[in-house]
Structures are given as C-alpha cells and as structure tokens.
Design goal:
The chain is of the alpha/beta class. The protein folds into three domains: 1-100, no CATH class; 156-236 and 368-385, Ribonuclease H-like superfamily/Ribonuclease H (Nucleotidyltransferase, domain 5), CATH 3.30.420.10; 237-363. The protein has helices at 2-10, 103-113, 118-125, 129-147, 191-201, 203-208, 218-227, 237-261, 265-270, 276-280, 288-300, 302-315, 323-339, 343-354, 356-360, 370-385, 392-403, 408-415, and strands spanning 15-22, 26-33, 52-65, 68-80, 87-89, 156-165, 169-176, 181-187, 211-214, 232-235. Strands 1, 2, 3, 4 and 5 form a five-stranded mixed beta sheet that branches. It has a five-stranded mixed beta sheet with strand order 8-7-6-9-10, with helices on both faces. Strand 7 and strand 8 (181-187) form a beta hairpin. Helix 3 crosses helix 4 and helix 11 (288-300) crosses helix 12. It is elongated. 30% of the residues are buried.
Length: 416
C-alpha cells in the first residue's frame, strides 16, 4: 500500500517501485521499468524490441517530499542499436542522459534562480554553487535552443548596450517593445554585432520592422539602415537628455577647475559634485530651495547660466506641433550651440546636425528606448547579485531568464 501511494505521488508511468526507504532528511526510492514497456534508443529515437544487452543503476534527485530530499534509483536498460551496432542506454523522457536530476527538479532550480541568486537557491535546496550553476545553465541552454534559435523577429525594436565587465566590455541588447521582452543579445557593440541579429532573422523579417529606437550610436544606425530598410530610425529622447546633461556637467567641471584655480570658495561650494544633480534636473522638478540655489549660481557664473538655457530651450522642441516646426527650432538651437564658447555644446551641435533626421523622426512615430534603460538596470542588479559572472555565455542566458523569453513566468502565462 505504501509503495502504491508513492507511485501515484511520483507519477512516472511505465515504472514500478521495488523498494523505498525513508530517513530523517532523505527518501530513497528504487524504480524499474515494466517488462512490457520497450526502451527507446537515444541515437535513432526508435523503440527496440530486440538487442537487449544489460542494465545499470543510476541515481537522480527528484522534487522534495515533506521537506525530505528524494533520490530515485533507476534501472536503465542497455540495447544494441540495429542501425550502427553500438550499445546505448535507453532514453528516458523525464531524465536527461548524463544528468543527476530529473527534468522537473531542474526546472524547479531554474524557477528559484530566476527570483534569487544561485547561492540562496543552493542553500534552500541543499546544493552547492557548482551544482546549481551546472543545472541552471543546462536547462537554460535547452530552452534557448528551442526559443532563441533562430532569433525572434519583432515589428518595433529598441537597441541599446550595457556594460557587463570593466574595461569597456559591452553587450548589445535588442528588445521587442510591443511584448516588452529582450529577444537577443551578443558580446560587443560594433555594427557587425548587430548585423548578426538582422542576418539571423532573415531578409523578410527585416523588411517587416517598422521602427528602431536607439541611442544615436553610429554603428547601430548604419546597421539598421542597411538591413531594416523600411524602418523608421528614432534617436531616443531619453538618450538625447543624457547627452544634454553630459554637456552641462562638462561645463560645470570646467568652471569648477577655474574656480579652484582662482580660489573662489563661494563658487566652488555652489558647483561642487554634491550640487551637480540640481543642474541635471528639469526646472519643473526643482524644489523652491533648489530653484533659489540655481538662481544664485546663474548670477555668479555666466557659462553655467548659458548651458542651462541651452538645455532648457532644447526641451521645448518636443512641445512643437509638427516635424516642420521642430526642424526650424532645432536648426536655430544648433546655431546657438555651435556659436557658444562652450566646447561640449559645440560638439553636441555637430552631433545633432549629423543626426537631425533621426531626432525629428520622433514626431513621425513617438517611440522610445526607455524600456532598454529599464532592462539595463535589471541587468546591472543581476550582475551585482552574483558579484559578477566569469562565464559570459551563462550571463547572457541569465539576462534572457530575467528579461526575456526564458523567464519561467512566461511558461505559466502560456499554460493558462
């Protein structure tokens, strides 16, 4: 009666339980295949009725029962394949060939590692870090072969880069903005890297891409223009704001060095690193105290005042009615920035001149790569949780697990 109950609990058809032992922390269950069930060859995937050679016992960990770890001791049959004459151990659908865990236990580990770090998942399950890494990577690689090969195509995409290691090591990420999922990533940030994605989805899928939101990088623009010929390339508003804030901050740093050289302590205190965030905020988001501080700073330092004016005036472009009005305003802004004595804004004016078409495309289709920045924050948090990844291929899979098509939550949604 006990063995019959355990058999129903395990739910492994085609196998019978021959023995079971229960200890304080572990349960050991011996199972054997029924004689009437024929083994499947892992090489030719056919059921063999002849050619029996021998059998061997193997152990695999299964899902825990009542807080006890469960180990299955399985008798695997070995048959000679008639196609090549070699001897193979039978293929078991719920057990991988060389794995020491059942498939459902491996998927359980994958679900845990998708919500916490590998160390915590290993502690909870009683596994060491290496075992969790091996199980998690194996299950992710299998899912990646099913869902990411060939790369998924999308109609509206966002392209961005994120640093995965110091010394300028980057990953290029492609995000489906309709589904809000990361669908592809690869090491590097050159045009050849992004070309691999477009080549992977094929010419027909490239023709169907309607919009590409990006950060203004030349290599991404050239690759998108070459392959996604029907797509509208949009220089993202969020990244333009980053460029403007960077230009303002460059002016602040230059004036700070001058103030220190002139021993102007009042100005040094106003434009020190502690106060730089006030310069980077929009005027509408400033508190009364921050507004008075900014007013005082602008009275003391003319270059910073001009930099703030240029930044705020550029933002009014996005309140224009149409592309033509915005183009007129943008040309005027570029002239003002180019004629200023501030080097950072002169460089920015040249950059915006070259990419004016992509800036104005925002008025044709108001798409954004802000979702890419959100995913970048998740990726950075994932990297910090693990204190870095030595295996970059595993890190790419973990990114898909947390931000893309390998997320276990998608399996639950699809099942319902």
């Amino acid at each position: 009666m006990l063995l019959h109950g355990i058999k129903k609990l395990l739910n492994i058809p085609g196998y019978k339980i021959t023995d079971a032992s229960i200890a304080d922390t572990e349960i050991h269950i011996h199972i054997e295949p029924y004689k009437r069930s024929m083994p499947t060859c892992p090489q030719c995937k056919e059921v063999h009725t002849k050619g029996y050679h021998s059998s061997q016992w193997t152990q695999a960990e299964d899902l825990p029962i009542c807080g006890r770890r469960v180990y299955l001791h399985i008798r695997k049959r070995r048959h000679r394949c008639p196609h090549d004459g070699r001897i193979y151990s039978e293929d078991i659908s719920w057990l991988k060939k060389w794995s020491r865990t059942t498939r459902r236990f491996a998927e359980h580990v994958g679900r845990l590692t998708s919500i916490t770090a590998n160390q915590e998942a290993g502690w909870f399950l009683g596994l060491n870090d290496e075992a969790v890494y091996r199980i998690d990577k194996e299950i992710l690689e299998e899912k990646a072969r099913q869902r990411l090969c060939p790369p998924p195509a999308a109609i509206h995409i966002s392209i961005d880069e994120v640093s995965y290691r110091k010394y300028h090591r980057y990953l290029t990420n492609v995000i489906d903005t309709d589904r809000r999922l990361l669908i592809w990533n690869e090491k590097g940030r050159k045009s050849e890297v992004l070309n691999a994605y477009f080549q992977g989805i094929g010419k027909d899928a490239c023709m169907k891409i309607e919009s590409v939101a990006l950060d203004g990088a030349r290599h991404y623009i050239s690759s998108s223009n070459h392959y996604a010929v029907n797509a509208l390339i949009v220089y993202d508003k969020f990244h333009i704001m980053q460029k403007l804030n960077g230009a303002v901050d460059a002016v602040r740093k230059y004036e700070l060095r001058k103030a220190r050289a002139d021993k102007n302590d009042e100005l040094v205190d106003l434009i020190s690193c502690r106060q730089r965030f006030v310069l980077l905020k929009n005027k509408g988001n400033l508190s009364s105290r921050q507004s008075s501080y900014l007013h005082q700073l602008c009275e003391l330092n003319e270059p910073i005042y001009k930099a703030m004016l240029l930044k705020e005036s550029f933002l009014t472009i996005y309140s224009c009615k149409d592309e033509q009005e915005a183009g007129t305003f943008l040309n005027r802004w570029i002239e003002e920035a180019a004629s200023s004595t501030m080097e950072s804004f002169v460089r920015l004016a040249k950059s915006f001149t070259d990419k004016m078409e992509y800036i104005l495309n925002w008025f044709k289709k108001k798409v954004s790569s802000a979702i890419s920045e959100g995913f970048n924050n998740k990726i950075k948090r994932l990297k910090r949780m693990a204190y870095g990844y030595k295996d970059i291929d595993y890190f790419r899979l973990k990114i898909h697990q947390h931000c893309g098509l390998l997320n276990p939550r998608l399996d639950v949604v699809n099942a319902t």
